[in-house]
Amino acid sequence: MTWALISMLVMVAIIVALRLAAWWALRVVSHLFGKSVAVLRQVRARENVSGLGDRFRTSFPGTTRVLAARLTPSRFAGLPLTLIVIAALYIAALFGGLVDELLEADELVRLDEWINQTIAPMRTRGIITVFIWITDLGGSVALVAVALATSGLLWAHRRGNIIAPLWLTILGSQFTTNAGKYVLVRQRPEFVAEVAAITPSFPSGHATSAMAVYGFIAYIIARDLMTTRQRFEIIYWTAVLISLIGFSRMLLGLHYASDVAAGFLVGGFWLLLGFVLAEHKQHQNHSTGKASDF
User: Tens digit of pLDDT for each residue in 99-114?
Assistant: First the structure.
């Protein structure tokens, strides 16, 4: 019992320390971004004075239009969409690399086994009881209930244009996860608790679903908040919940670390697609003159 209490206290301390570090890092990045924008404005002003900018736009009109469309920070279809597309492609590449490592290399298998053995001392009765409850938050019953309740609330508050992106994220991530499970058919580790699973191990469905559902709900909430601090708190504590659900799968011996990582990547990929669809619908509402559902 003492070891379980110490482990939980250490985990809480780590979460709080990461919260402080993440907020500090966000402030630093925001400060640097603000300086970068100021420098770019000065460069643009100098180019306009010298005529260099006008000459470039005259010589390369097509390139100028493409760059302006893709790099404008004030429009979602500009820099935000460009960054999302880059992130989605990067996530897809990471997932492909993870699958390749699983099929071709023994290093990933050995790393998974080492991590499994490293967390073995944490598997006390008290900690297992806590993490069984946490893992249930990422189960199909809980997440379907959360998704249906969220859809109902969105409809009741006349925000129905968010429902389709939400379910695109959920169903797309589930389809990809199940396809991966039955194509790769990876055996699960040895179970260490009364919780069991019958589907193949890779990728983790709990990690995928938690990332997709809770991540999208965090997006819905954070989008309407007024301050950066409020958005940060929602996103950070949602990330903590998702991470704990993923860790619970490893602690209970239901998944390897690479299964959980792959689940996060799949859920993250579809989460980004959901963001794009949601913002596209918002843009359509503004373009057609309809009242915003956000």
Answer: 888 887 788 888 999 9
